[in-house]
Task: inverse folding
């Protein structure tokens, strides 16, 4: 079996697998695959440009000797980018001209299949979660800017290395290496530095959809036992999924914003009720339970690391700790670029605005504060176009210009 086939059946070299003879119904060796159509890979709901014709040509030569099945994943590198695509439907034309959808079991068949693509219908290749991982790490800067996260590339990469490398391996390799997947990470640092952005992005990358974000204080409920129940409920979907599907269940990412609200040091909340301590215990119990399951990743976030119960941070719990600090000058420049990108593309940003100068002048600003600075500068620009004596007068779009002076005023505000 080649790497792709092993991947599909989740086996690694050295594994023992069962094989059965199989005759594909009505198909012949040398079936012609017609009409491969590439869909743009979708990332975060938006579209990523795929150089479709070149990729198609590349796929033709790269996978010429393979039989595909619907649901199969293909990995390949093209022009420095790693792609991981999933075949969603596949049609072959057998000699005689009849079209057939390829059955899943054909995968196990080593035969040759001439891959011919034309515009129209045929193979549909749609993006899957891991595309984003591999693309992101090949093309970090570009992707990060596109995603709207500035100045956190190196932190992101470090976090990936410490917390996620193992998840790219097949289960049997993880076992043989004798390592365990990390179950939790803690992001800490000043407010407004992009912790939530990065956690959401991770969630998206890991399972291709918006992750569940829970706000610490929202979990708390004044009724006895209700907070604990809220915590139990957060883990319920993942637990049920695991019971049903075992290691095949999807990865559930649970993000706790302001985790300090529910996990302050036990004994530190002296309201005489001891309720807080039971809540912490409940959370720890649930996170420990995650070790038995294999499908949950907990990401906690806090601006107040010192408040957290130390037990939460121990090995096997949220044991990867990443500080997300204030951006440096280059980071600030990236963030300013992100938040002025739209206005710049649409001609609203005046030529005298020098983002590098602003990055230099905004020491100790967080990402959120830089975003606020842009908002404030924009409000000064709009104010110029507003006649308080006659608010019914429409704003002339062409006149809107956010200038250097607007930014300097915003800096003073
Ligand atoms: P935190 O979770 O660290 O308190 P957030 O991730 O919620 O901060 O950031 C709040 C907002 O500030 C974001 O929605 C974004 O608009 C802006 N922001 C913060 N950090 C960055 C960053 N590194 N790059 C781009 N925008 C940022």
Result:
């Amino acid at each position: 079996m080649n790497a792709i086939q092993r991947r599909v059946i989740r086996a690694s070299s050295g594994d023992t697998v069962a094989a059965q003879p199989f005759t594909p119904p009505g198909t012949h060796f040398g079936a012609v695959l017609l009409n491969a159509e590439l869909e743009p890979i979708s990332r975060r709901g938006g579209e990523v440009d795929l150089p479709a014709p070149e990729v198609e040509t590349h796929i033709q030569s790269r996978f010429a000797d393979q039989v595909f099945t619907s649901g199969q994943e293909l990995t390949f590198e093209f022009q420095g980018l790693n792609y991981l695509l999933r075949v969603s439907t596949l049609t072959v034309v057998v000699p005689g001209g009849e079209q057939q959808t390829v059955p899943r079991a054909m995968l196990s068949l080593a035969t040759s299949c001439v891959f011919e693509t034309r515009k129209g219908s045929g193979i549909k290749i749609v993006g899957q979660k891991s595309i984003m991982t591999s693309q992101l790490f090949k093309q970090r800067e570009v992707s990060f800017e596109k995603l709207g996260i500035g100045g956190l590339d190196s932190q992101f990469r470090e976090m990936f290395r410490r917390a996620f490398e193992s998840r790219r391996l097949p289960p049997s390799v993880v076992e043989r290496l004798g390592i365990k997947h990390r179950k939790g990470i803690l992001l800490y640092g000043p407010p407004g530095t992009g912790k939530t952005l990065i956690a959401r992005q991770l969630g998206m990358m890991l399972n291709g959809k918006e992750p569940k974000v829970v706000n610490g204080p929202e979990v708390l409920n004044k009724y006895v036992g209700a907070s604990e129940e809220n915590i139990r409920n957060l883990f319920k979907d993942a637990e049920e999924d695991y019971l049903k599907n075992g290691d095949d269940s999807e990865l559930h990412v649970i993000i706790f914003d302001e985790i300090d609200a529910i996990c302050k040091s036990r004994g530190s909340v002296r309201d005489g009720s001891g309720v807080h301590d039971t809540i912490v215990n409940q959370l720890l119990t649930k996170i420990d339970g995650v070790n038995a399951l294999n499908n949950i990743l907990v990401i906690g976030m806090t601006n107040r690391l010192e408040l957290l119960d130390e037990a939460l941070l121990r090995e096997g719990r949220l044991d990867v700790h990443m500080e997300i600090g204030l951006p440096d000058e280059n980071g600030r420049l990236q963030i300013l670029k992100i938040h002025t990108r739209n206005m710049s593309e649409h001609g609203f940003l005046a030529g005298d605005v020098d983002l590098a100068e602003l990055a230099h002048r905004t020491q100790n600003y967080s990402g959120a504060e830089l975003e606020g600075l842009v908002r404030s500068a924009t409000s000064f620009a709009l104010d110029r176009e507003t006649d308080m004596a006659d608010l019914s007068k429409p704003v002339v779009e062409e006149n809107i210009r956010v200038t250097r002076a607007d930014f300097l005023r915003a800096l003073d505000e």
The longest strand covers residues 81-89. The first helix runs from residue 3 to 8. The mean pLDDT is 73. The pocket of adenosine-5'-diphosphate is lined by residues 148-152, 191-197, 301, 335, 338, 367-368, 371 (CB under 6 Å).
